[in-house]
């Protein structure tokens, strides 16, 4: 996953 | 994690708790749009599918489970338990006018043409307009209970705080996600009219009434 697509947010 | 995102999540959690409290205590869902709650359940279901595939932190997992569970619990309260108090005649916004364009947009504008990513994008776009049936219902009934306006204020503030979080992450982490940012700005702008009424009326102890 590239950094942008980490989706670490809710 | 930063203080803006944390306070955004807390505001979101608060909004959901206020809504559940309102329905449970008053044993009524008068003034609440069941359609918006259905859209929110769809938002969380499509966004948190990665609940089983990617672990970020216990906090992240716990919040995702809570948001999914509470959204379905709210739908249960509105459409089953207290359905006699559900104001069907004023909750008339056509959900398909939101879901279909958002679905098309998610297929056209996304970061990655994979099922999980398209569902995440669909969820982000849908969340930005999911409150419209509720705002439409408030404008149609011309007023909202004070507790409902607190719910809407907390819900609106959650994404407004996320915008500050995105500014922070851009400058301090070099991270940004244009899809989330643009959808988040649209979502927050939709609340502006309500924010104005909330600050000028509800905070002064008046009833939230819209000029009919």
Strand tally of chain A: 0
Strand content of chain B: under 5%
The strand line-up of the biggest sheet of chain B is 1-2
| Biggest sheet layout of chain B | 2 strands, antiparallel
Question: Class by helix and strand content of chain A?
Answer: little secondary structure
Given helix and strand content, the structural type of chain B is: mainly alpha
Fraction of residues in β-strands of chain A? under 5%
Summed up, the helix count of chain A is: 0
Overall shape of chain A: elongated
Task: Report, as a whole number of angstroms, the end-to-end distance of chain A.
Answer: 17 Å
Subcellular location (chain B): Endoplasmic reticulum membrane
Keywords (chain B): Endoplasmic reticulum, ER-Golgi transport, Membrane, Protein transport, Receptor, Transmembrane, Transmembrane helix, Transport
Family (chain B): Belongs to the ERD2 family.
Main location (chain B): endoplasmic reticulum
Keywords, separated by commas or semicolons:
heterodimer; A: 10 residues; little secondary structure; B: 212 residues; mainly alpha; two-stranded antiparallel sheet; 8 helices
Short structural summary:
The complex is a heterodimer of chains A (10) and B (212). Chain A is low in regular secondary structure.
Characterization of the model:
- The complex is a heterodimer of chains A (10) and B (212).
- Chain A is low in regular secondary structure and 10 residues long.
- Helices cover 0% and strands 0% of the residues of chain A.
- Chain A contains no helices and no strands.
- In chain B, helix 2 runs antiparallel to helix 5 and helix 4 packs across helix 5.
- With 212 residues, chain B is mostly helical.
- Chain B has one domain.
- Chains A and B meet through loops of A and helix 1 and helix 3 of B.
